[in-house]
């Protein structure tokens, strides 16, 4: 038997990126064995994120750290994938001589042939083409319990701060049958949870012929998914239909958990962000969801310090956080991105002011999360067990349908099983539970 070469992938950024890394490892599985240890790799890929300047800075400092590896092992091939690869393409090879391969967000399945080309010619290979890339590609998945399923790629919105429409290209929905095949396959393999991924899942199917909608897709997935839980990210408030709310209310397999980015509570800022909804519309959707879906958990994304954000605009974001009582928020300071509309806005917020606003919301949200956790105490909950807890192997952790982490004691390994617990207490980031029965 010949020895397989070794592949390592360092993944930065969002869930879609982590899923793309599964796609890459799957595409190379015939020739490469996966290793967590980057110093042993024959092919080392960095899957990059460009969403904020911090993510980009992280990549460039990582490149500096990887330079010695290339000097130690002349045969090491270094690849760059993801959003920075798509954004900068060829320029990366000129800037950073250790890079051999650059492939964009839709070229992952072409990497095996790019590698061959590189080995034959010794010349760096770059592919940032934006052709369609949907198929039932083999995946090398991170988990054998919970799986990501990409239902669309790219984004047709034009949020003025966001680089993603440039890096992931125009929106493309994956055909329904192809998604259903993958879901059936995961159910057969014993998976217990799927998370449907798309930049804006609410607009799924608009460009398919015949047209499909996201709520219809959910109903069809629900019909074939067996006992698997269904989650999805990300929803856009402007496209959140009554049909989706009904589907969530009616289908027991869909988790009562909704990630609904508000970004700002001020209509003036929302308009500058080109979000195409008002705070009133957002809360109309939230109230309807809460009324129809029992025990719903809502999380959000917020940007503070967007150009032109006055104290009065910020106060409206504070009010929105108080009103929504999110279980969790992902909070960001605005970061200008090259080529976006917002980058041209002159009225930048002083970084010290932005930091003060950031800190104020963070403190508020910590309190709300704590209160939300307290409200769960005494309740019964079904968990999907993820594995032993990192700190104490006699304890296990799992997630409730609301996606909160719950720790509990067990003398049996219950990894990958559904269990019932009573919630007995809470910490800063997770709940405590006791096995029922
Ligand atoms: N600056 C700060 N935050 C951003 N996000 C996207 N672009 C930017 C930016 N330029 C945030 C948004 C989005 C999340 C994924 O990242 O809140 O919902
Ligand atoms: Fe994901 Fe956006 Fe970062 Fe690309 S830029 S990796 S889509 S978060």
Give an overview of the whole structure:
There is one protein chain. The protein is built from 13 helices and 19 strands. It has a 6-stranded parallel β-sheet, sandwiched between helices. It has a 5-stranded mixed barrel with strand order 15-16-17-19-18. With 437 residues, it is of the alpha/beta class. Helix 7 (176-188) runs parallel beside helix 8. It has helices at residues 15-27, 53-72, 82-88, 90-95, 111-121, 164-168, 176-188, 214-224, 242-250, 267-272, 279-292, 311-324, 351-376, and strands at 5-11, 32-34, 43-48, 77-81, 101-103, 125-127, 146-150, 152-153, 172-173, 193-197, 229-233, 257-259, 297-304, 328-333, 380-388, 395-399, 405-409, 418-426, 431-435. The model has no long low-confidence stretch (mean pLDDT 96). The radius of gyration is 22 Å and the shape is globular. The longest helix is centred in the C-terminal third of the chain and has 26 residues, at 351-376. The structure holds 5'-deoxyadenosine and iron/sulfur cluster. Iron/sulfur cluster binds at residues 13-14, 16-17, 49-51, 82-83, 164, 167-168. Residues 13-14, 16-17, 49-51, 82-83, 164, 167-168 line the site of iron/sulfur cluster (SF4).
